[in-house]
Amino acid sequence: MEPTKEPVREPDWTVVGILGSARGAAGASRGEAIGTDHLLAGITASKGAACQALADAGATRTAVAALLRDARERGITREGADDADAIVASTDILGDDGSRHTRFTGAAARALTSAMERARREDAKKFGAVHLLRALLEEDPGDGAGERNRAVVLLAAGGVSPRTVLTLLDGDTPHPENDLDPLLHPTRDVLLGRSHYRHKALWKRWLLKRVGVNWASRPAWWVSMETHEQARRLGHDAVGTEHILLAVLATHEVVLRYPHMRDESAPTPDTRYAGAERLARMGLDHATVHSALTTGRVPLTADARPAEQYLDEAASPGKPPTDAPPDAPTTDPGTAPLVDLLMKEDTRARQLIEALATTPDH
Predict the structure, then answer these.
(1) pLDDT of residue 73
(2) Cα gap 350→244, rounded to integer Å
(3) Helix, coil or strand: residue 103
(4) Cα torsion 242, 244, 247, 253: sign
């Protein structure tokens, strides 16, 4: 009888990187045990099929990092979840590839063991990110209670179904995320970190990508960046207040589909999107304004002053400027001051609003 093969205990280089990222997500200096949510975050920071399946489902590095930060900031308790009482030393799971300073929750340890077993069944020399992701999404605490691990809970908080991710891993047609207008897909992709604003210098784009800015938590800054993209997508060389109006509407309509991104660092009450909400109550939306601009059915006169001045004025005083660095304070004036400015002066944005609004402004 053929002897039973041992589980594949050696990780490939991608998993080595994932484990390093997971230690960072867990807070290496705090000595917190790595959980399944940290392993999931590590996968989103990697490359390959596992990372791509998560990103296609909406669980990008930026989105998952925002959820982890928000949970930490709000002090959400983690005791009892992920079988956290059953701490396992890294060396007990990974042998010589483990670190004596690293520990895993019980659920994370089981997911790693399951990934090794999957690799063994496939006759793989090392276990990889796909083995680990499948194990995370299918990991069961084994006590019959069916309690979900932190990775699955984190995905659910971001509106992502494990079934969708597994379907994508199997190579099936991606499931539509929602019925978002295709015109807003570029704005959504920037929010999720799938793409980045092009009008900035290459080093700034690299830095923004590296940091993984959650634009939804800083709507005024987001609008200032999105304004240039709205102009570019229309093929306009100069930026006007009509593009600011489009940016205010686009960012708001996208963030309504991703409330978990909006809620990070949200004040109470959250009035950051008050300007966009005011426009929505007047019956305005991105598609209507975009159509008016592309068809030219609303004659427009010149703005009273350069569009950049409205963006800068709405962000001051004491607020991060429109070109704020990624580590700027998260306090954000929101879109209300900007919409107020656009409405008070004879701007192209105001001309569009007055021509297209279906409900009076109250």
Answers:
(1) 75
(2) 11
(3) strand
(4) negative
